[in-house]
Every structure is written in structure tokens, then in C-alpha cells.
Design a protein that fits this description.
Layout lengths: L12 E5 L2 E5 L3 H23 L2 H6 L2 H27 L3 H8 L4 H39 L1
Antiparallel strand pairs: 1-2
Helix pairs in contact: 1-3, 3-4, 3-5
């Protein structure tokens, strides 16, 4: 009789996002993608902080508006690209449309996906630890 390890390994979870189901695993690719998003956003923040108050005072209103709009577009594109890479081509923009053109909601989706997948990993590790402890206690009695 074969021992089925697949039952003990949390291979994937199913998520419903924007009325569509996705099956995801907490994989290296997912970790890399979410890390890349965070690094890109941190870099954008650094760039924004480099612009001094003096610089903005010297900018016209039109230049300030253009700067803010460009920043919002970069953030939007970062999240859309990440969701496309994780969920499939075109899904980032589909979710953006579904959730009323909100980049903030795209960020929330990515955060929630990461959180749920990490929780599943922690649960799997806790179950593994409980099995080892039970086996150890069982061996102690023998």
C-alpha cells in the first residue's frame, strides 16, 4: 500500500476574486513576485522623497499634476503586472475594471493572497509539528 504524501502537502488553495476562481500555491514564484512589487514600490517612495519642497515649489501646477499622475500610473502598472504574473495574463486589468478602477483594491488583493497563502503554510507546519510530537509521545510510552 502506497503512502499518499499529497494529502499532507498543501499544494494549492482556491480563491475567488472578482467572481472568478484561481488556484494558487505558496510557491517561490509567488514569493518573488510579491517581493518584487514591494521593492518596486519602496524604490518609487525613495524617488518621491528625493524631490524636495523647493523642487515642488519651482514646479508649475501642471508639472505637479503630471508628476502625481505619472506616480499613480507607475504604481497601478506595478500591481497590474504582478497580478498578471500571478493569476494570468490580463487578470490585473480585469480586476482593476471589476473593482471600480481602484489600484488600492489591487494592492489589497495582493496582500490578502499573500496573507492567506502564508497562513496555509503555517497551518501545514503546525500540523507537521503536532504529528511529530504525537509520535514522540507515543514512542515514549512504548
Amino acid at each position: 500500500m502506497a503512502i499518499n504524501l499529497d494529502e499532507r502537502l498543501n499544494k494549492a488553495l482556491t480563491f475567488t476574486i472578482g467572481e472568478k476562481d484561481y488556484e494558487l500555491a505558496y510557491s517561490d514564484d509567488l514569493v518573488k513576485e510579491t517581493s518584487n512589487v514591494m521593492l518596486n514600490l519602496a524604490d518609487m517612495q525613495k524617488q518621491a522623497e528625493k524631490i524636495s519642497e523647493k523642487d515642488t515649489d519651482e514646479m508649475s501646477i501642471e508639472e505637479q499634476v503630471k508628476y502625481v499622475n505619472n506616480s499613480i500610473d507607475k504604481i497601478h502598472n506595478t500591481y497590474v503586472t504582478a497580478l498578471d504574473n500571478i493569476l494570468g495574463a490580463g487578470e490585473g486589468e480585469r480586476l482593476y475594471d471589476y473593482y471600480d478602477h481602484s489600484t488600492n483594491r489591487l494592492a489589497t488583493i495582493l496582500d490578502l493572497l499573500n496573507e492567506e497563502l502564508q497562513n496555509a503554510q503555517k497551518k501545514q507546519h503546525a500540523n507537521r509539528k503536532q504529528r511529530r510530537q504525537a509520535k514522540y509521545k507515543s514512542n515514549q510510552r512504548d
